[in-house]
Task: structure prediction
Amino acid sequence: MTIPSGWLPNATIQRVILHWTAGGHKATDFDRQHYHLLIEDDGKLIRGLPSIDLNSLPKAKAGYAAHTLNCNTGSIGVSMCAMAGAIERPFKPGWQPLTKTQWDAASTIVAELCRRYTIPVGPKTVLSHAEVQANLGIQQRGKWDIARLPFDPDFDNARECGDRFRAEVKAKL
Result:
């Protein structure tokens, strides 16, 4: 999978934040307003409406992708289209669960973004929305994407999921 070069403008980016939409398996216009890149259930890549350069450092510009509370400047938002109706504990993946195909596509896409924007892979630079508060100290509103993996129940907290994702991204670099 390759991100079209026209989707990757010059920008000063320091991190990638991984999300799920908490919606269905296909990207909606609403989803596209909030993320730079979206991945549907079959791994298809969809371009979000805001350009990555609108989230560029030193200050986000009008129309930027508002994907993470107080953490959008310098951040690319990548989201997997999934998890409508999901409940964290006791865990229920909802009627549109995250797929392994999406997860694999996301790690490939994030590896490409890290290569393009020279982002080192670490817990403060490649992380899920669920890790933002713990890893960056930026208060969030109970976001748990991604703290559970429907396709692998052995991973059931944000750090474990994040560490697994980062290892898969590194392996693809």
Observations:
- The mean pLDDT is 97.
